[in-house]
């Protein structure tokens, strides 16, 4: 007991804490895009005119809600466009990275 906590256990705890914080946030943020996809699926069963009109309005409403709640401004430069083309949900990627890092470091700690 005089040696303190192992460095391996510290890595497991830090990755587990990061996973517990990031995974709910990642699912919360990607849940919003799931709803937009379901709207498109439902509209597909209606007339083609309605489907094309609503599909073009979804980004407009999203932008207007962002401006109303001051999440974005109309003059905001699109600097993150190149990053988002590679992988559209970075927070999901980082949360799974922490989760699998927790699993791997726990296995190393147990051995």
TrEMBL record:
<feature type="transmembrane region" description="Helical">
    <location>
        <begin position="91"/>
        <end position="110"/>
    </location>
</feature>
<dbReference type="GO" id="GO:0022857">
    <property type="term" value="F:transmembrane transporter activity"/>
</dbReference>
<dbReference type="InterPro" id="IPR030184">
    <property type="entry name" value="WAT1-related"/>
</dbReference>
<dbReference type="GO" id="GO:0016020">
    <property type="term" value="C:membrane"/>
</dbReference>
<keyword id="KW-0812">Transmembrane</keyword>
<keyword id="KW-1133">Transmembrane helix</keyword>
<keyword id="KW-0472">Membrane</keyword>
<feature type="transmembrane region" description="Helical">
    <location>
        <begin position="50"/>
        <end position="71"/>
    </location>
</feature>
<feature type="transmembrane region" description="Helical">
    <location>
        <begin position="6"/>
        <end position="29"/>
    </location>
</feature>
<protein>
    <recommendedName>
        <fullName>WAT1-related protein</fullName>
    </recommendedName>
</protein>
């Amino acid at each position: 007991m005089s040696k303190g906590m192992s460095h391996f256990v510290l890595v497991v705890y830090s990755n587990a804490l990061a996973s517990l914080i990031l995974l709910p946030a990642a699912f919360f943020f990607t849940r919003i895009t799931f709803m937009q996809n379901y709207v498109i699926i439902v509209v597909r069963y209606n007339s083609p005119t309605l489907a094309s009109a609503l599909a073009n309005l979804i980004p407009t409403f999203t932008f207007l809600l962002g401006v109303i709640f001051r999440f974005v401004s109309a003059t905001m430069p699109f600097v993150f466009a190149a990053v988002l083309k590679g992988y559209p949900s970075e927070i999901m990627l980082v949360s799974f990275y922490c989760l699998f890092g927790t699993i791997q470091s726990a296995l190393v700690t147990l051995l």
